[in-house]
Amino acid sequence: MSTDTDPFVLAGVTLASRFLLGTAGYPSPQVLREAIAASGTQVITLGLKRELAGGADGHGGFVEIIRAAVSHHGARLLPNTAGCRSAREAVTLAQMARELFDTNWIKLEVVGDEHTLQPDPFELLAAAQQLLREGFEVFPYCTDDLISCRRLLDAGCRVLMPWGAPIGSGQGLLNPWALRTLRARLPEAVLIVDAGLGAPSHAAQAMELGFDAVLLNSAVAHAADPVGMARAFRHAVEGGRLGYLSGLIAAQDMAVASTPVAGRPFDA
Predict the structure, then answer these.
(1) What is the DSSP string of the chain?
(2) How deeply is 155 buried, as exposed, middle or buried, from its count of CB atoms within 10 A (0-12, 13-18, 19+)?
(3) In angstroms, how far is the first alpha carbon of the chain from the final one?
(4) What is the pTM of this model?
(5) d(CA 217, CA 44)
(6) Which one, of 138, 17, 26, lies nearest residue 75 by Cα?
(7) Cα angle at 52 between 50 and 58, to 5 degrees?
(8) From CA 268, how far away is CA 254, in angstroms rounded?
(9) What is the mean pLDDT of the chain?
């Protein structure tokens, strides 16, 4: 959702959608194209390392499919360094992505644990610092740790992408308190919940916490109906944002009557 009174400005670019969509694991190129259209997204991510290793799901010309989708929908391409295990590897891949796609946007991922695919905060910061010096607009995929996030902002990142849960797990927001704290303590940062969302309600919850956008892949790509699910997430993101802007009522420990219990509602 983006209106004249609620603009979404991402790295200096004003967008009409707060839903960022990944492109891995779709059953066919056609389904991917239809899901992108249904989502209304204006930012599409692409795992470059995966493509260089042999393409997505065996479909030839996958990168060209993504280029065409980006052009057709007026979207921005956000290459990512998924699969990298060190700062050096991630920096090299980001440099290749800039040459291939003529963009300085990079979603920076540096894996630190094979089981959870949790980001390595030290290698991530080192890679971010190097890429920022080289003129990249760095979108770091990070945990919800406040201090790590502050270090990335201090390095010059304008956007942070903290996880909701481990990548592809579909568990939703495992630590709403930590995410709420990030939003409260980093009011000027653009914060995008990335990874672990499994249902449209998870996306709505993230937006209701005041996050600027969500990014996801598996929940749409692996759904029984990816196109329908992309549409569902689109509406959930818009609804969650509108709920946040409208002012959610505070949770109460006890019932609070919504109808007056004293006096007469009408004159006799």
Answers:
(1) --BTTB-EEETTEEES--EEE--SS-S-HHHHHHHHHHHT-SEEEEEHHHHHTT-STT-TTHHHHHHHHHHHHT-EEEEE-TT--SHHHHHHHHHHHHHHH---EEEE--B--TTT--B-HHHHHHHHHHHHHTT-EEEEEE-S-HHHHHHHHHHT-SEEEE-SSSTT-----S-HHHHHHHHHH-TTSEEEEES---SHHHHHHHHHTT-SEEEESHHHHTSSSHHHHHHHHHHHHHHHHHHHHH-PPPP-SS---SS--SS-SS--
(2) middle
(3) 47
(4) 0.89
(5) 10
(6) 17
(7) 70
(8) 33
(9) 90
Can you tell me which residue has the tokens 């449209």? 200
How many C-beta atoms lie closer than 10 Å to residue 178's C-beta? 15
Which of the following is catalytic: 33, 49, 107, 202?
107
Encode burial over 82-116: b for 16+ CB neighbours within 10 A, e otherwise: bbbeebebbbebbeebbebbebebbbbbbbbeeee
Task: Report the C-alpha gap between 222 and 16 in whole angstroms.
Answer: 25
> Does the annotation count 107 as an active-site position?
yes
215: β partners:
20, 194
Q: What is the pLDDT of residue 66?
A: 83
- Output phi, psi for 213, to 5 deg: -170, 175
Contact 128, 152 (CB under 8 A): yes
- pLDDT, tens only, 222-268: 999 999 999 999 999 999 999 999 999 888 888 888 776 666 665 55
